[in-house]
Amino acid sequence: MASVRLDHVTKIFPPKTIAVNDVSLEIKNGEFFILLGPSGCGKTTTLRMIAGLEKPTKGRVYIDDEDVTDLPPRKRDVAMVFQTYALYPHMKVYDNIAFPLKLRNMPKDEIDRKVKEVAKLLRIEELLDRYPKQLSGGQQQRVALARALVRHPRVWLMDEPLSNLDALLRVRMRAEIKRLQKELKITTIYVTHDQVEAMSMADRIAVMNKGRVLQVGSPREVYHKPKTLFVAGFIGTPPMNFIKTVFTIDKNEYVLSGQNFKIKLPRQLGELIETKKGLDKEVILGIRPEHIEVVEQPIEKNNIVEAEVYVVEPLGTETIINIKINDTIVKVKTVKEILLEPGAKIKVKIDPNKIYIFDPTTEEAII
Amino acid sequence: MSLSEYLKDRFLEGTGARLLLLPALALIAIFVVFPVVWNVYVSLTNYALTGPRARIYGFIGLENYIRIFRDPSFYNTLRVSFLFTLFSAIIGQAFLGLGIALALRMREPEGILGKITRALKITASTLVFVAWIIPEVVAGYAWSAITSKGGLVSMLLGVNENIYVKYPFETIVVANVWRGTAFSMILFMAALEGIPQYIYEAAEIDGAGPWKRFRHIILPLISHAILVDFILITIWTYGVFTMPFMIVGPSGQGGPAQIWTLYVYYNAINVYEVAYAATAANIMFLIVLAMIIVYLRVMGFLRRWW
């Protein structure tokens, strides 16, 4: 068990691809830490630098305050689960799991005891005598986890370990990995592009894009208090809606004014935006699909937006309605059973207490 | 389908198809089957290249075979052929080929050192390829030139003699290694390419250093390629003639570099004993045949296991 610290780490692949750009992170002992971002954002390269498979161009990597930047992977005492599992095809499951222990010249009976212990933990005892190619994807994945666990590494690294599994198995393994991690309290750094995975498993998440860390925080924090437009748009299914508006004062009240709608803001909120951004400025209104409500007969006139139904996606327990507000497609999530045809005119209500405001030029959150 | 079309189809499927194979079969019969059969026949006679036995020769049964098994120079040839194959094919080509293939896969460091490494890699692999594609006679002539008195090798070694006379066996071994390494190198490069990068990385993280990665991961995963390589280059090296002939000539009866192809040549052309040479060739044919059977067996075995 250990803590991991990245200190201004940069990785440039020659000639000049900047994969990771000045990343500093601190991962606490026993924490389940997730690097989340779209493909090509540098999350895997970051993980590989912690593993020692890539050497940072600049910056240092510390494990337990020990500078490991120049150490090869085998001297870092970390274990890694690869997206492709990377089982040794010529070894039986038993030998795959025992391999890291054999390399450490552990006595045979101790190896045997440890392999069987971890096999029991991962419920693969009956597979020990098989070759990797005789296993299903889910079983191979368990073997890869077992091999990473068996020697009680200081840090557990996982590079999209679930992305090659089918949807059902993925959900099951998600819970299983989380349970294992909590049980064994091994510091874990986990890479994924799947924000649902990140939200459901992580203690803390670092959202990355274009080689930079945009925000670090608990799942609740990154969900409820996104610092940038990118983080807000990346987390949540379906993602947050963005609508261009102007922040202004109308009839002595703060409003966000769109092409044919006005959203009245609570006084405090308006004052805050005014001090931070100023009046009569263009801002981006962010609202999550679950915070837009379809109203059939509006009681009040405030915060009602007229829209046209674009397409309806029923998902069983909930329905996603894509609506057009002027030229912007906005997704609305509702649990109500609503029968709507594309092209129908409807009214929706935006809850002003649930909105986010972003600066259109810096893309940073104003509130 | 009209009747004529139907008949044409039937013709091409049956008799016609077989007729089309005839020219190829005829060529194989004339140039492959007939010499083998004729060789067996000749070995049972006292046929010679010149002299009276060239015109009038007769069936003498197994006399040639009895004679050859009493000939010390034949045993010398067996021994030289075995050592030549062992040193130039297994130890030379295969090990060097594997070494170069592994070196070519090595990760290049960053900066100027990486550029030098890359340049070295390209140069090395190009040289190995060139050795492989030069015509054999040209290569043989070049080797005899650089190993002759005053040639490059004698100068480097500081020996003012014909190297190919003083060290004929060593010369043909080195020349054959030089020529044949490319095949093993390519085979091993392909085999190494077949091991995904992440397997190496997993081993590295699991705690394996370079030697243990080679011993526990690379070696078992390319073992089938090694076996195939051993068998193929053994068979090929066993039948090599042109380069050694260009370098050391027929190499005298019982000479230290007289591999069996040179032995056959010597007996047939230099001392005109064609029937005797045919006998030697037949015995060698059986040895190669045995090797091919082993090869096919092993391949079948591997196909079942991999």
Number of strands of chain A: 20
Q: Label the structural class of chain B.
A: mainly alpha
State the end-to-end distance of chain A: 38 Å
Look at the structure and give the mean pLDDT of chain A: 91
The helix/strand order of chain A is: EEEHEEEHHHEHEHEEHHEEEHEEEEEEE
Query: How much strand content do the residues of chain B show?
Result: under 5%
Mean of residue pLDDT of chain B?
88
Largest sheet of chain B: none
Catalogue the unreliable spans of chain B. Answer: none
Poorly predicted regions of chain A = none
- Main sheet properties of chain A: 6 strands, mixed
Q: Which overall shape of chain A is indicated by the principal axes computed on the Cα atoms?
A: elongated
Q: Biggest interface, and residues per chain?
A: A-B, 23 and 18 residues
Rg measurement of chain B, Å = 25 Å
Oligomer: heterodimer
How would you sum up this structure, described in words?
The complex is a heterodimer of chains A (367) and B (306). By secondary structure, chain A is α+β, with helices and mostly antiparallel strands. Chain A has nine helices and 20 strands. The longest helix of chain A is centred in the middle third of the chain and has 18 residues, at 167-184. Chain B has 16 helices and no strands. In chain B, helix 10 packs antiparallel against helix 14 and helix 11 (197-206) packs across helix 12. The mean pLDDT of chain B is 88.
Which SSEs are present, and which pair or pack?
The complex is a heterodimer of chains A (367) and B (306).
Chain A: E1 4-13, E2 17-27, E3 32-36, H1 43-51, E4 58-63, E5 66-67, E6 78-81, H2 93-103, H3 108-121, H4 137-149, E7 155-159, H5 167-184, E8 187-192, H6 195-201, E9 204-209, E10 212-217, H7 219-224, H8 229-234, E11 241-250, E12 253-257, E13 262-264, H9 267-276, E14 281-287, E15 292-295, E16 304-314, E17 319-325, E18 328-334, E19 345-350, E20 356-358
Parallel strand pairs in A: 3-8, 3-9, 6-7, 7-8
Antiparallel strand pairs in A: 1-2, 1-4, 4-5, 9-10, 11-12, 11-14, 12-13, 14-20, 15-19, 16-17, 16-19, 17-18
Helix pairs in contact in A: 2-3, 2-4
Chain B: H1 3-13, H2 15-43, H3 52-55, H4 63-68, H5 72-105, H6 112-133, H7 136-146, H8 152-157, H9 163-166, H10 168-193, H11 197-206, H12 210-221, H13 223-238, H14 242-248, H15 260-270, H16 274-305
Helix pairs in contact in B: 1-2, 2-16, 5-10, 5-13, 6-10, 7-14, 10-13, 10-14, 11-12, 13-16, 15-16
